[in-house]
Amino acid sequence: MTREIAAPTASRLADGREILFFSSDGPPALGVDHRDLPPRPTVPVTTVRRDPTTGDNVIIAPARQERTYKPPRTMCPLCPDPSGLSSEIAAEDYEVVVFENRFPSLATPAGYVPAPADDADGLRRESPGLGRCEVVCFASDHDGSFARLSQRHARLVVDAWSHRTAELLARDDIEEVYCFENRGEEIGVTLPHPHGQIYGYPYRTRRTAALLRTAAQYRADHGGDLFDAVLADEIADGRRILVRTEHVTAFVPYAAKWPVEAHVYPNRHVHNLSELTDAEADDLAAVYLVLLRAFDALYDAPLPYIASWHQYRTGAAEGYLHAELFSIRRSADKLKYLAGSESGRDAFVTDKTPEAIAGELRKVIG
Fold first, then answer.
1. Is the predicted pLDDT of residue 1 greater than 70, yes or no?
2. Which of 152, 160, 210, 357 is deepest in the core (most CB within 10 A)?
């Protein structure tokens, strides 16, 4: 039985974008967004082009060049501002907030109906950049981080992700929902306020398509589920297990690509976050916090990382909800750069064995 998620408090920003407040202690006190913002486009301003040599989709979004870049703290667009003059969030305070990105890579304007696709030209295929891009503010504390949230607060973030996943997967213009967090300047973060993003893609991304192809081939060859088999094998081996609870298992994968990497699986096979029970969501939030705190304990400075959630539609033939957390830092003072082999051929070379990575993380987990 899946859990009930309280409906967020909904409001609108000055340009009409939706903003949602998720709270554990009742509705927040909201202000009014008084900023003078340009009107939202009535047609898509980004496009998706298909690379004819690989079949990859590439989002062309030149307007994102104008997105907010390292503003002074007093002008942080993610801090609460009850005056409604300098921030996206016109409120005295908040717990978790989700709003439509002001500079989206993908967006479907209200009432927009795309023209039928024209595939006559086999080399040049372009479609409007439909979908949805949202910002998820994990907390109002500008100097905070996900790792420093309480377990109750982290669970509220999980509920916000779950709510948005269910809502976005129900849309006809969205094929895949991706929740993620970029953390640290080394990763490319330009707003230090603790936040993540949600992308609703109009197509299946390359990584997801590859995972599903491999899973389908495994089923054809072995008659079982690939992700069930991976989890069972890691548990049986034990050398790379980091945390295991009643409902959740975290481990370093057998063929880890990154110098710090951990995967998190619910023990029960579910497709996306909205299918979790209350007990599973509690455990997931707790284990996730353990891993993020372990990441930060490895070296003398907070670890730059990407947290990437893999989700699939309920009832899909293949797919298993899981998170991948990874960092480009390979030692206290060195980064792993994606150079020729990784960037040019997507052929990873790693400097650490997965068993060594697991040992380092277990040491700081305690």
1. no
2. 160
Which CATH superfamily is 207-365 part of? HIT-like (3.30.428.10)
Catalytic residue among 34, 153, 163, 195: 195
Per residue in 63-119, pLDDT (tens digit) is 899 898 899 999 999 999 999 999 999 999 999 999 999 999 999 999 999 888 777
* 195 annotated active-site: yes
The Cα 103–Cα 61 span in angstroms is: 9
Sequence-distant (≥ 6) Cβ neighbours of residue 20 within 8 angstroms = 8, 9, 10, 11, 97, 98, 99, 160, 163
What's the rounded mean pLDDT across residues 254-273? 98
E strand map for the chain: 9-12, 18-22, 47-50, 57-60, 96-100, 125-128, 132-137, 176-183, 195-201, 241-244, 248-251, 260-266, 305-310, 322-327, 329-331, 334-335
CB distance 263 to 253 below 8 Å: yes
Q: Which residues pair with 20 in a beta bridge?
A: 10, 98
Q: What is the pTM of this model?
A: 0.97
- The single residue listed with the structure tokens 């959740």 is 248
Binding-site residue positions for Zn(2+): 76, 79, 142, 193
- Superfamily of domain 9-203 in CATH is HIT-like (3.30.428.10)
Annotated binding site: 76, 79, 142, 193
Beta bridge pairs of residue 137? 97, 195
Annotated domain spans of the chain: 9-203, 207-365
DSSP letter, residue 341: I
- In eight-state DSSP terms, residue 3 is P
